[in-house]
Amino acid sequence: MGLVMEKDEVAEQHEFIFPQGLAGFGDAHRFGFIYEGKGDMICMQSLDTPEAAFILTPWDEQRLGAKPELNTEQMNCLHLSDDGKPHDSIMWMLVLNPFADQTWVTANLRAPIALHAGAGRGIQCIRHDASLELRYRWVEQSSAA
Questions:
Q1: Is 55 within the bounds of a domain?
Q2: Residues 139, 94: contact at Cβ < 8 Å?
Q3: Average pLDDT over all residues of the chain
Q4: Do the domain assignments include residue 59?
Q5: Among 12, 24, 74, 79, which residue's Cβ finds the most Cβ atoms within 10 Å?
């Protein structure tokens, strides 16, 4: 099962379970992914709450530094063992917001998404660090022609 599915492939057999839901969408536990086939942005769409859709992009270590670490509760939600070994099977994603700023698409660094494709599970990792930006300037908005 691939992490990124083609737009027409979003179906129940491709769902990811978010046992804790997402901030503002606690009842949204099942998500599918829509990918247009180019670029590094994907849409994560709730299968429970259709109005819950998010644009995601992979964590960029060159820009942001090391990926976040998971605590024991988060590892349990993702069905990972707490054996002290790095978890290379986790894909870290940032939630993008194209509406918060007219000039920039922003990224929320305080609430990245961790996906464990092998288990079909995901969580939103809320980080209570005031130094992390809620509206980190990710990419400039394209100009309207």
A1: yes
A2: no
A3: 85
A4: yes
A5: 74
Model confidence at 106: pLDDT above 50: yes
Angstrom distance (rounded) from CA 106 to CA 120? 27
**CB atoms near residue 78 (< 10 Å):** 23
Q: How many domains does the chain have?
A: 1
Domain with 112 in it: what CATH number? Answer: 2.30.290.10
145 belongs to a structural domain: no
- The CA radius of gyration of the chain, in Å to the nearest whole number, is 15
The residue range of the domain holding 117 is 7-140
With b meaning 16 or more CB within 10 Å and e meaning fewer, what string describes 106-129? bbbbbbbbbbbeeebbbbbbeeee
The answer to whether 133 touches 109, Cβ cutoff 8 Å, is yes
Structural domain includes residue 2: no
